[in-house]
Structure formats: C-alpha cells, structure tokens
Amino acid sequence: MATRVIRAVGLGAAMVFFLFPTAWIFGMSIKQPNEYFANPPVWIPGRPHLNHFRQLVLNRSIDAVGHSLVVALSATLLATALGCPAAYSMARFRTGGRHLALWVLSQRMLPPIAVIFPVFLLYRTLGWIDTHHGLILLYAAFNTPYVIWMMRGYFREVPREIEESALVDGASVFRVFWTIALPLSGGGLVATAVFTFIFCWNEFLFALVLTRTNLTTLPVAMSSYFGPQSSFWGEAGALSLIASTPVFALSLAVQHYLTRGLTLGAFK
Amino acid sequence: MLPGVGFVVALLVLPFLSLVALSLLDWDLQRVSRTFVGLANYGAILRDGRLWESVGHTLLITAIAAPLELVLGLGLAQLISGQVRGRTWLVPLFVLPAIMSPIVVGYGWRMLWDTQYGPINHLLAAVLGRPVTIVWLAHPQTVYAALITTEVWQWTPFMFLALLAALASVDPELLEAASIDGASGWSAFWLVTLPLITPMMAVALVLRSLDLLKLFDTVFALTYGGPGTLTETLSLYVYILGFKNFRLGYTAAAAVLFLAGLSVLSTAIIRRMVEE
After folding, report:
1. Average pLDDT score over residue span A161-184
2. How far are the Cα atoms of A174, B44, B263, B275 from residue A98, in angstroms, in the given order?
3. Distance between CA A65 and CA A24 in Å, rounded?
4. CB atoms A86 and B110 under 8 Å
5. Could you tell me which of B151, B130, B12 has the C-alpha nearest to residue B70?
6. What is the pLDDT of residues B60-81, one digit of tens each?
7. Nearest Cα to B226, choosing from B212, B213, B240?
8. Is A255 inside a domain boundary?
9. pLDDT exceeds 80 at position B99
10. How far apart are CA A219 and CA A216, in angstroms?
11. Which of A114, A214, B24, B273 could bridge to B255 as Cys pair (CB 3.0-4.6 Å)?
C-alpha cells in the first residue's frame, strides 16, 4: 500500500514537472496579452483567441514552416538514400571493418560549432549562404553518419539465411538489398528517417549561421522574437506550438524505436 | 557505399582540413590581409582567460546536469517499470521534452523564469505566501540553477528511456530470489538491480556528457552567456569569436582544440559501442 502511494505521488509530481512548462508555453498562444502579462497570474485562458496565429501569418513568420519542411525533408531523403547502401555494405561485407564504423560514429559526435565554422567560409566562397541547397547539403552530411550507424545495426538483425538463399537463387547483391534487406528493416528505416527529420527540424546553430533573409527555419524564427527585451510572448507561444506539434506526432508514430533512436543504438 | 562516405568526407572532413590550415593564419574578416603565423594562434589561446573560463562553465554544467539527469531518470524509470497500467501512454508523454527543439525549450523557459510575469516566481510566491521577485537569469547566484534546471528538464527523459531499457534487461528471477531470501524492495534495488545496470548507467552518462560538452542552444536562448560572460559555454564563446568578432584564424585554432579534446573523450565510448 505504502509503495503504491509513493509511486502515485512520485508519478504525479513528475507529470507536473515535465508537462506543466510545455502546457504553459503553449497556453500563451491563446491567452490575451493582459492575461500572460498579469500579476497575479492567469493560469487558464479566459477568452481564448487565435490572434497570435493570425499575427504569425500576417508578418510571414509562418513561412518558416514551409522552409523547415523543405529543408528537413530533403536532407532526410538525401541522408537516407546515401546512408542505407553504405550501412548495408558495412553490415554484410564488413566494408572498412571496425575502423570505418568507428569513424562514422565519431563524425556524428563532432561539435557542431567546429563543423559550421569552415563550412561557413566554404559557403561564402561558393555563394551558398542563405540558400536551401546549402542548408540541405550540410544537414544531410551531418546526419548521414547517423543513418549509416543506425541502419548498420538494423541490417545486422536481418537473418543472413534469407539473403543467402536469394543469392544462391541468382539474385544480385543490389536486388537482395532492395527487395529483402530494406523491406525487412522497414520499421528501423522509417524510425531512422523520422529521427533524422526531427534533428533537422530542431536544428538551430547551422541555420542561424547559414541563413539570412531568404530562408528562415522555425528555430531561427523563434529566436527573432527575443531581443534583450521581448514582449511577443503570445506569438512565441504560438510558434513553439507550431514547431513542436509535428515532432510530437512523429515521435508517437515511432515510439517503439524512441530509445534506440535517441541513444544512437546503445539502448534497445 | 562510396557515395555516402564520399559525401560525408566532402562536407565534414575537407572543411576540417581547411580548419586546420586556417588556424595557422592571422586573418580578420574586418581586415583584408592574411598572414601565416604558424602556431601563434594556439599560443594566444593558451593565454585566453575567457576561453578557459568558458571551458570551466561547460565542465561545471556537465558535471552537475549529467549526474542529476541520471539520478532523476533512474528514479522515474524505477517508478514506471513496476507500473503496468497507463505505461503505454505515460512513457511517450514523459519523453516529449527530449523531442522538442532545444531552442524552443530555451526561449520557452526564458519566459518561465521571467521575474515579473514568469510562473516560477508566481508558484514560489504562492507556496511561500509572500511576493517573490528573483531575477533568475541575470543574477550570478541563481543563473546556474535556472540553466541547469532547464537542461535537466529537457534531457532527464533521455536518461529515463535509457534506464528503462536497462531495468528491463534485469532478470526478474533474480529480484524474485532476492525477495524470497528476505530482501526488502530497497535492498534488492541496491544489491541486485544497481550493480547489474551500472555499466549501462555509465554508457548513458557518457553519451549525455558528450552532448553537454557541446551545449549551445539552451544557453544561447536562455542567457546568451550572461550575466556578463558568467554562463558562456565553450561552443558559445567560439561562436562569438567567429561570427561576432570575425577573428577567423584564432577561432579556427580554438575549434581545432575543441575538436581534438572532444575526440579523445568520445573515442573511448565509441569503441565500446562498436564492439557491442
């Protein structure tokens, strides 16, 4: 009995701690300004409205949704297309052995600030600053190691016997990869793509450095609402809601892969 | 095979080589000239007090936040792992902060910590029964508490997921045997569960620490290194050097040292993960 009470209290406290901040931030999007700038505070919106969302449309902050979508989606497709064959080769033929696998994973752990600095200078020379393809290519390059690393793990779990019997029947390696290995790792593939998308969607530093006026992703749009002084809390709340809802939905869709995807496969 | 690795080489490795070359130059974007200065930039870095302070801040945040996330995540995982009812929807719900963009979390919490209108001061006032006007993000004595709380809020769910998997790997028969031998829940946890999951706790702790050492977004949004440079992390300082002060050669040298330091640290854990 006592343990049950402790457990209920603990879980209740944890739920308040982990859910209240998000709820409060999202809640501001439908509060009146005099409700979020109120003392004593107004916890529940009295007269909910959508003016902050309308404001985001009027001042074109909402364009960031389209930019983020295009950039994250393209980078995900590119990273997945490039990463899967490499991962399969490493999983089945031990291409490059342990050292290549090690090196691939180490690329993933590079500090982004050290990566972005030379890339910025390179892009300045190429005239790629503030372009979609510039950001897409960098996001894809930064996440291809993640795709290789994760898919290498998923491919290794495909029973070798199935592939071998297909090879004996005369199927080419590419055919085995395409019609057997890839479909059998379908869940892992989708999850890996979803996580890559989420990483790109949430990314801030690269976008901050590489974009100006032509291209604004959601995290950069968010930062534009905060100067030394900021009073656009309603808009910021609305933007937070818009930026977070898609990734929440995606994470629910791949919830069985959450642990593996977020911990680089260290935990399953 | 080749396209994938070739692509990574082109966009990550080649820039790294240029980074090393750049670090040997004295090159300021606000001036036209660039001269070869050898290792002078590296020498200057060793004497750069602000840089070493930023390393100190980064280590401080990592040393407090990572273990805190581990302990809280373990507690939460232990609470949930015995729970059957509601588990399928509780777990994804607790994980939400870790899925959010760190920049959204940073700005969101900046409003939560607000002195006048933030709900945290309001809640404290309600509990204490008197007005609370803590200037969380601008006061040297509270800024780290605010920063680390925000960080812990976002990433405890990561530890929670990892440790939930670790707990699930513990053979329930061992715990049963312990309870038959008369061990209480607590002592079974200390004597059976904990030793079994310690290696996995170490992996989770190192993974999280490697991320914390690169901390940028949360600090950028929450304090921008302030008050003064009191919470400036290494990533933020290198950003300011390169993209606010435009000292290219010097920034490159700092970035090379950062890369080298982190690589040494991460190689050990990566080796373990590759060996599986």
Report:
1. 91
2. 23, 38, 17, 8
3. 22
4. no
5. B151
6. 999 999 999 999 999 999 988 8
7. B240
8. yes
9. yes
10. 8
11. A114
The answer to whether the CB atoms of B92 and A21 lie below 8 A apart is no
Say how many domains are in chain A: 1
- Here the CATH number for the domain that contains residue A167 is 1.10.3720.10
Contacts of A142 in chain B (CB under 8 A): 11-12
Tell me which chain B residues have a C-beta less than 8 angstroms from the C-beta of A248: 96, 99
**Residue of B9, B54, B103 to mutate for A, most A C-beta atoms under 10 A:** B103
Per-residue model confidence (pLDDT) at position B1 = 56
- pLDDT value of position B239: 96
Chain B residues close to A120, C-beta within 8 Å: 242-243
Q: What's the gap in Å between the CA of B43 and the closest CA on chain A?
A: 19
Q: Is residue A155 part of a domain?
A: yes
pLDDT band at residue A1, thresholds of 50, 70 and 90? low
Phi, psi of B35 (to 5 degrees): -130, 150
ipTM of the complex: 0.94
Range of the domain at A227: 63-262
pTM, 2 dp: 0.94
Give me the mean pLDDT over the A82-102 stretch: 86
A5 lies in a domain?
no
Nearest by CB to A113, which of B98, B255, B266?
B255
Amino acid code (one letter) for A146: Y
Q: Cα(B15)–Cα(A141) distance, rounded to whole angstroms?
A: 12
The pLDDT of residue B271 is 73
For A163-178, what is the mean pLDDT?
A: 90
CATH fold of B2-275 reads MetI-like fold (1.10.3720)
Does any CB of chain A come closer than 8 Å to the CB of residue B92? yes
The letter for the amino acid at A13 is: A
